[in-house]
Amino acid sequence: MSEIKEFHSMDLQNQRIETIFYLTLLVSIVQFGFILWDMLTLIPGVGALVGLKAPNAITSSGLMSSLYLALLGIYAGYKEFVRWTSSEQEVPEEQVIRFKRGEFIVSFWIVLTVIALTIWQMKIIARMPNELFRTALQALGIMFGSYASKGLYTKSSKKKAEDQTLVNDNQGKIIEYIKANGSIDNETCQKVFNLDRGRAYRLLEKLEKQGVVKSEGTGKASKYTLKS
């Protein structure tokens, strides 16, 4: 039953990610179109080529840019929420592919910005297209925020895996030691099992959370006995 609930939960999360992604993609295309049109019409001769009789007045607005960046931020934030709340240690490959699509969107903005900067510095256009630089910089910031979250998640997952290996390797030995000596403390755990203070603490804390042992006392006086 719990597996069915977990499947439906993951399916719902996937649907939400898909919905937010396609909304973001739609606004990305609109925003990209406005900015690209603005950039092209700044190039001498392009306006006449496309039949533009008056100076171009169609540019991206600050409101459109804010809407787009809000959607991009929601998409990035929700996918990180899914990553952190996933019951699996490793995010499924299908999920990883979904996560990477936002990076392609940001990459398009970076490429367009580099092109615009290049032709602006070459004096081919008189100014940068409206909202391009702000959109690209903030999209880049969102992407690196996502990278930071992914890095922390990976580090956290690795630490959990290491702690579980630590428990698996030492749980039986801890139980045997307590049976023989009545209790164990952090300092004894370090000496007997050749662990540093932090690893010994995490091992005993993990065993306590799993209901294998219980602590008595506080601070350095804490001792761990088998939970009956």
Write the SSE topology:
Elements lengths: L1 H41 L3 H4 L12 H24 L7 H29 L10 H50 L4 H8 L3 H13 L3 E4 L6 E4 L2
Antiparallel strand pairs: 1-2
Q: How much of the sequence is in beta strands?
A: under 5%
E-strand count:
2
The helix count comes to 7
Which structural class do the helices and strands define? mainly alpha
What is the general shape?
A: rod-shaped
Provide the spatial order of strands within the biggest beta sheet.
1-2
Average pLDDT for all residues: 85
Order of helices and strands: HHHHHHHEE
Poorly predicted ranges: 1-7
The profile of the biggest β sheet is: 2 strands, antiparallel
Alpha-carbon Rg, integer = 28 Å
C-alpha termini separation: 30 Å
The percent of residues in helical segments reads over 70%
In short:
By secondary structure, this protein is mostly helical. Helices cover 74% and strands 4% of the residues.
